[in-house]
Write a structure and sequence with these properties.
alpha+beta; elongated; about 50% helix; DNA polymerase, domain 1; 18 helices; about 10% strand; 3 domains; three-stranded antiparallel sheet; Double Stranded RNA Binding Domain; hpI Integrase, Chain A; single chain
């Protein structure tokens, strides 16, 4: 009879080939004699001669007998050891590997580590470095302090709620972006098999609705005032490249970065077209634009300023594009309450109120993506010919308005 069996009997512990709950909490706390003391489901308490004690489970995993350490009794109670042993045995009988599952759990990333990894994965797909930096910086500022060091599997809806609540009404736009970015990280975790749910999606009803009446839209000039703005810009003391770029933005109804970063190889003077590459477009699709006569004149004027960097509208430093701030500052300093992006709104409103062009033509001119998937599946034409007529009409309208304004000014003189 072995020492362990004798010790079991002396303590009144049940014995046999498959004991079930043979140990007691008192015995676990007081036993000092070295040996193995079995409980059930392969669980036993190992007591070393040195006095060290630990829980071990002997279990068959995929046909092989293995031993799994479950921790010391000082940290893991008898009840907890039994619960874990039962979980392991059920998993092994179902064909799983408790050892592998534990290794994966221990190796699981924290939310912060996962966010950095997701950021790196998406980095090549984002439009610019500014957006990429904002994506991770908002998480670093608003999410990481709350649950950045927590394992992905341990982050709860309460944790996400605690991070978003302080900024939800104070900084609504930032809060929505933070929530979206947390959701993206958690979607990746779900895809990895580390979570079954997404806590960023489960909190929708716990947060108050944002008052969209207070959302500030980009300032836009009434379309009747745009020609006057162009003329004022022409007469200003701004640099020629700045004046040409701003007028080009207005004539083409493009976004600031689409024009500021234009390169000569994108311009086809023979076809009178401009092809903006996908990486510079918001919708991540190349955009072909017809160029009006005035737009082509601007390009010819810009050629006289060519610094051989390839940029059409370069800044004061060779090879550097104009900054968005330079254009915005010019408009504001000249007394116009408008954002550069707002000229797209001016164009759209003009097209709606002053022309008979269908809505899809002006939407295509603005490079807006068709949101209805069924409609988008059939809308494969870029409506170039119709857009050419529309952009020529816009240029003619601005020219005519300028002409009228000049005549009035001459009459006053």
């Amino acid at each position: 009879m072995g020492d362990a069996t004798m010790a079991n009997r002396m303590q009144g512990i049940k014995s046999g080939p498959h004991p079930d709950k043979a140990l007691s909490a008192v015995f676990v706390r007081t036993v000092k004699k070295a040996g193995k003391y079995f409980d059930g489901h392969g669980l036993f308490l190992r007591v070393e001669k040195s006095g060290a004690r630990r829980w071990v489970q002997r279990i068959v995993i995929k046909g092989k007998r293995r031993e799994i350490g479950l921790g010391a009794p000082a940290l893991v109670s008898l009840a907890e050891a039994r619960e874990k042993a039962l979980e392991n045995r059920k998993l092994a009988r179902a064909g799983g590997d408790p050892l592998k599952a534990r290794r994966e759990a221990q190796a699981m990333l924290t939310f912060e580590e996962a966010a950095e990894k997701v950021h790196a994965l998406h980095l090549p797909t984002w439009r610019n470095q500014k957006h990429a930096a904002q994506w991770i910086n908002t998480l670093r500022e608003y999410a990481f302090p709350h649950f950045g060091k927590m394992r992905l599997a341990d982050v709860t809806t309460a944790d996400v709620l605690a991070a978003l609540t302080p900024i939800w009404t104070a900084k609504p736009e930032t809060a929505r972006r933070v929530r979206q970015r947390i959701r993206t990280v958690m979607k990746w975790a779900v895809a990895q098999g580390w979570r079954q749910d997404n806590p960023a999606e489960a909190i929708a009803k716990a947060l108050p609705k944002h008052d969209m009446r207070n959302v500030k839209h980009r300032l836009a000039l009434p379309y009747a005032e745009v020609a006057g703005c162009i003329e004022t810009v022409r007469q200003s003391r701004a640099g020629l490249a700045t004046k040409l770029a701003l007028e080009f933005i207005i004539l083409t109804a493009t976004r600031s970065n689409e024009t500021r970063l234009t390169r000569w190889e994108e311009i086809d003077f023979d076809k009178e077209e401009w092809l903006i590459p996908a990486e510079r477009m918001k919708g991540m699709r190349p955009h072909r634009l017809p160029l009006s006569a005035r737009a082509l004149e601007i390009l010819q004027e810009a050629k006289a300023l060519d610094d051989e960097s390839g940029l059409v509208f370069h800044g004061t430093k060779r090879g550097k594009p104009l900054s968005d701030m330079t254009l915005s500052k010019l408009v504001k300093e000249l007394g116009f309450k408008a954002d550069v992006h707002g000229f797209r709104t001016s164009f759209k409103t003009w097209a709606q109120e002053q022309t008979n062009f269908p809505n899809e033509v002006s939407e295509a001119a603005l490079s807006h993506v068709v949101k209805n998937k069924a409609e988008a599946a059939y809308a494969r034409s870029d409506l170039l010919d119709k857009r050419r007529k529309l952009m020529n009409a816009w240029a003619s309208y601005l020219s005519a308005e300028n002409g009228r304004a000049n005549k009035l000014e001459a009459g006053r003189g």
